[in-house]
Amino acid sequence: MPTTDQTLTEILNLAAAHFKVPREKLSPDDDFFKTLGIDSLQTLDLLTKLENHFHVELPDYELQGVSDFRTLAGKIQARI
Amino acid sequence: MNSVQALSSTGKTMSFAVKDGIVELVLHRNPCNEIGSASLEDLESFSETLQRAEQSVHAAIIYSDLKCGFSAGADLRELYDRSQAMEKSEAARGVREFLERIHHVLNVIDAVPFTTIAAVHGVVFGGGFELALACDLIIADKTARFAFPELRLGLVPGFGGIPRLKRDIGNAVVRDLLLTGRSFNATKAQQIGLASQVVAEGEALRAARATAAQIAKFDPGTSAAAKKFIKPIPHEELCQEIEIFCDLFSRPAVQAGLKKFVESEDAQPYLP
Questions:
Q1: CA-based nearest residue in chain B for residue A34
Q2: How far is Cα B265 from Cα B139, in angstroms, rounded to an integer?
Q3: How confident is the model at residue B2 (pLDDT cuts 50, 70, 90)?
Q4: Shortest CB distance from A60 goes to which of B122, B144, B271?
Q5: The sheet that has B9-10: what strands, in order across it?
Q6: Considering chain B, what percentage of its residues have pLDDT values greater than 90?
Q7: pTM attached to this predicted model
Q8: Residue B143, class by beta-carbon neighbours within 10 Å (0-12 exposed, 13-18 middle, 19+ buried)?
Q9: What ipTM score was computed for the predicted complex, to two decimals?
Q10: Residues of chain A contacting residue B183, judged by C-beta atoms under 8 Å apart
């Protein structure tokens, strides 16, 4: 089982690749809506990518109020 | 006009054409195939063609060529704008008429004697999900995400979603999806028996065409008899759904929910 830090790193790598943002521009505590410049539909797209990547199911209501990568990693880690 | 031209149409929101016995309906209304009055007219044209083509077609495929996905569902902006421009009773009549027309269209798609396939990707929400549910098979690529978000607006799905979902999968799963309004991915859709195939990103249409070609090998009369036997249309529940939707739609909370959605500058209107 990966550590939370490993999960966080994988999320950052995946988000950078998927939304074509330089990886070095993404930090764990960034607001991903602002940093990635994504709307709600693109956020759901990211959620699907994360679920497929980590083989977890994350109901979208668990994302309520979540806007930074670190908290997102914690939500995913709780379901791995 | 030859028979192929007669069975082809380019509408404002979608287009369809027949090739090698397969009707393909492609949804192409920006931003994400929201279903409003123009889409309904195009769907009515499509359903009339399906009925005319029963003898010459062995399968139909519905897909979207927009990147965002299959469909984000009903056009809530149009629904809100129209309801604001009318007296309350007139708006209620308009909603009921719209629902009855779209139910008729989806019942036709549901019941045609040949096989219908929804090839979906990305957002498959609300009315878009209900359009897919009217089809015999759902083939989803890995980007597909399904949801009935209507409860967030104080509504239930209105295009036949609940009765068709109840017909196709277990009631406990229906309750989970409906009462939480949560979205779920293609893998989950396959696990619960909703999607017949899950394929790689961008491969749903190819897989649907391969499936349609396989179906063409069988006697159409036998396929029609099998479909009629295993896929009854839940007419009574569909009528009940219209009544529940219309009853809920008249409540002030729904108007407030629609207003909030339409006027939202939040980047997350599709998140709970």
A1: B267
A2: 34
A3: very low
A4: B271
A5: B9-10, B14-19, B22-27, B59-64, B115-120, B137-141, B197-199
A6: 73
A7: 0.92
A8: buried
A9: 0.85
A10: 44, 47, 59-60
